[in-house]
Design a protein that fits this description.
Blueprint: E1 6-8, H1 16-25, E2 30-34, E3 43-44, H2 53-57, E4 62-65, H3 75-83, E5 88-92, H4 97-100, H5 103-113, E6 118-124, H6 137-142, E7 144-146, E8 153-154, H7 159-171, E9 178-182, E10 188-189, H8 190-201, E11 206-208, H9 211-220, H10 225-241, H11 249-254, H12 261-271
Parallel strand pairs: 1-2, 1-4, 2-3, 4-5, 5-6, 6-9, 7-11
Antiparallel strand pairs: 8-10
Bound molecules: NADP nicotinamide-adenine-dinucleotide phosphate (NAP).
Amino acid sequence: MTEQPIVVLGATGRTGRRVVQALARDGRHVRSASRTPRGPGAVRFAWEDPASWEPTLSGAGALYLVTPDGVPVDPAFVEAAVGRGVRRLVLLSSGAVEEMGDQRLLDAERLVRDSGAEWTVLRPGWFDQNFDEGFFAPAVVAGEVLVPVGELRQAFVDATDIAAVAAAALTRGGHAGQVYEVRGPEALTFAEAVAVVSRVSGRSVRFTGDPEAYRAALTAAGRPVEVTEAELAAFAALCRRGDDEPGDVVERVTGRPPASFADYAAAAAARGAWRG
Ligand SMILES: NC(=O)c1ccc[n+]([C@@H]2O[C@H](COP(=O)([O-])OP(=O)(O)OC[C@H]3O[C@@H](n4cnc5c(N)ncnc54)[C@H](OP(=O)(O)O)[C@@H]3O)[C@@H](O)[C@H]2O)c1
């Protein structure tokens, strides 16, 4: 690749931060972008502020494209990126987007496919880091993780491995036009994953997978009925899709096997996650 900067959106987020680290380790010219820029060469980027787009994209050759939950990829931004010379786009999408009808990410996938640039789509499973950096972290500390998927097996994947795949796709040939299902090395039930977290954290944490318990908990928390029902429908679709198989994308793309959930959890506990 050239010395043109590689722009990483969501550079303070769970995958973006790790993409920045992977590219920096590889000696690449990285431009970190987020609303709260941190570190040398970081720029302010906000989806809702098109004035921030030009400084973000100026002179860039490749782009890691990620939006936070609920925020769509703006077509005008993709157009601006390609128009300003970005030749390679790596999009963070999600596994099961089709079955779960995730229109936001399906639209984003279509945008990068139709962009005219080289593109790679990453469809990861549930991040391991949801348990310590993400939406399950407060639940772990509170002692109960509630996800209405029963005994469904999911190939939880380490965000560091997703980032390593992204860094390879951003910097090396051979990944254009690929849709990568990025999965971990084993498919665990949530009950098994929570048991691992419980053991390494020394906390008593249980898992509840019953949709009725989920509905009752969200109703009690004041969540609008239509939001809860839409979530339950998406989880039901995920369950109909069936158990995940472990994936080989991480090893094929990076040359090293993906981290196990147990390794992730042990490292997180050693760092002091879940001390509350
Ligand atoms: N969690 C999972 O298991 C999972 C699995 C598959 C796919 N995904 C997908 O992964 C994507 C990222 O989700 P995540 O929860 O992991 O988020 P994240 O990347 O950890 O955090 C969001 C990042 O975007 C930045 N950001 C937030 N609002 C912004 C805005 N308005 N304009 C510009 N930047 C903004 C944040 O930094 P600042 O606050 O500094 O701006 C942060 O760097 C989502 O599309 C999600 O659906 C998640």
